[in-house]
Write a structure and sequence with these properties.
It is built from five helices and three strands; from the N terminus they run αβααββαα. It has a domain of about 55 residues: Arc Repressor Mutant, subunit A (Orthogonal Bundle). Helix 2 packs across helix 3. A hairpin with a 2-residue loop joins strand 2 and strand 3. It is mostly helical.
Length: about 120
């Protein structure tokens, strides 16, 4: 292929030269590999996500904070791991706080206080 510069007339180029010139001008972008979603199953799965006990995992599930990440049909629980971590990292909303208070888990202890 001849040297093509700003002075070269497009009319003098062959189709192959024009294709090659255009291909060289457009940067190639490598498609990013899609990450497969990770799922956890059951209360044990929730416990593994957050590194807590199954009892605490049940409390997290019942709080409603990660409801968007949970799909439940009957007894089968499937949790989107990334979404659950993202939702758990957010501060609880006012509606979540009110829901906890209605359930009776809204009593707050001060540091050093023991619930009897």
């Amino acid at each position: 292929m001849e040297h093509i510069n700003d002075e070269t007339l497009v009319v003098t180029l062959t189709i192959g030269q024009l294709k090659q010139f255009i291909a060289n001008q457009i940067p190639t972008v490598q498609p990013q590999a899609k990450q497969e979603k990770q799922y956890a199953y059951g209360l044990k799965g929730i416990a593994e996500i957050f590194g807590c006990s199954v009892h605490t995992a049940n409390q997290i599930k019942q709080s409603g904070k990660i409801d968007t990440a949970i799909s439940q049909i009957g007894r089968k629980i499937v949790v989107d791991v990334d979404l659950a971590r993202e939702l758990a990292g957010r501060k609880s909303t006012l509606s979540n706080t009110r829901a906890l208070e209605k359930r009776g888990s809204g009593s707050k202890l001060k540091v050093g206080e023991i619930k009897k």
